[in-house]
Amino acid sequence: MAESPLLEEYRRYLTLERGLSPNTCRSYGSDLGQFFRYLGSRKIEPLAASYDDLSDFLWELKSDKGLEASSLFRKIEALKSFYAFQVSERRISESPAEPFRSPRLAERLPKFLTIEEMERLLRSSGGAAFEPARARTMLELLYATGMRVSELLDLKPDSLNLEDGWVRVFGKGAKERLIPVHARAVSLLRQYLVLRERKFKNRTPAPELFLSRKGGRLSRVQFWRDLKALGKKAGISKPLHPHILRHTFATHLLQGGADLRAVQEMLGHSSLATTQIYTHLEKSGLKAAHRRHHPRG
Fold first, then answer.
1. Which of 136, 220, 246, 252 is catalytic?
2. Is 269 noted as a catalytic residue in this protein?
3. CA-based, 20 to 30 A from 166: which of 72, 111, 179, 186?
4. pLDDT (tens digit, 9 = 90+) per residue, 13-55?
5. Phi/psi of residue 217, each to 5°?
6. 3-state class percentages of the chain: helix first, strand second, coil last, to nearest 5
7. How far apart are CA 237 and CA 142, in angstroms?
8. Catalytic residue from among 148, 196, 220, 252
9. pLDDT digits (tens, 9 = 90+) for 52-95
10. Burial class of residue 271, CB neighbours in 10 A (0-12, 13-18, 19+)
11. 241 catalytically annotated
12. Residue 148 a catalytic site member
């Protein structure tokens, strides 16, 4: 049986955007495939599934199939992740998996680039042609704002306030936030907009800010390919995926002495606890920042 397009797209998201390991992606895919087959037997579309449908599925696994608690919790995590992605894509307004609670497991600290690695990556990008300029502008904007790649690809030209140095972003649940943009990113955006206008002046392109060479909305996959190529050119051995730039943004701000709540607001986290994971990174860097910024340092 052919794989659901929703599941196929979600697999690509896990691999390309979140950079999860092949084993984790296979596990999530297997769990969701089982759930999709369960829904199919009851003629329920995945995006129409309710909390009760998910609960019935999990209860059947526990009572009829004798699934152990650890395996059941993994399936809950797969369901929560899948439906959170659908909310971020605005296909559904809320996740039917949200009420489920899983036990807290040991947190994996997010990977990030060092300042030196980030500088090398930025130096490796750019050029006068449209596509290299687009890649450099996207890279600089992600590092400047910490926005999610889905938010970046949703941007429209009128999302930018280049005079005042702000970008308006619509995050999860269509929540709006304003993120400051530094002068270097503003300069690159101005240059990119000129190239964009020149390239598509005799056509009607898609309304998004970042476009493919044919004038359509740029895909996640294309940006991931551009990022991977730039990483190779810069000689960076770490696996690169768009989300690592979000982690890098948050980590470097906190290393520089930024306020945790300000970082939370810029990232669009609803809970400060989500942002606090970055305080565990590079403790020595944070202490150095404290010495530089504290009046008694």
1. 246
2. yes
3. 111
4. 888 888 777 878 888 889 999 999 999 999 999 999 998 899 8
5. -65, 130
6. 60, 5, 35
7. 20
8. 148
9. 899 888 888 877 666 777 778 888 889 999 999 999 999 999 99
10. exposed
11. no
12. yes
Cβ proximity of 38 and 57 under 8 Å: yes
d(CA 223, CA 241): 9
Measured distance CA(11)–CA(19) in Å, rounded: 11
**DSSP bridge pairs for 168:** 178
pLDDT computed for residue 206 by the predictor = 96
Query: In angstroms, what CA-CA distances link 140 with 123, 148, 256?
Result: 11, 13, 18
Q: How many CB atoms lie within 10 A of CB 194?
A: 11
pLDDT of residue 68: 72
Active-site option among 74, 75, 172, 196: 172
Whether 246 is catalytic = yes
Of 80, 243, 247, 252, the active-site residue reads: 243
pTM score, two decimals? 0.65
| 270 or 14, which is more confident | 14
Contact status, residue 236 vs residue 121, Cβ threshold 8 Å:
yes
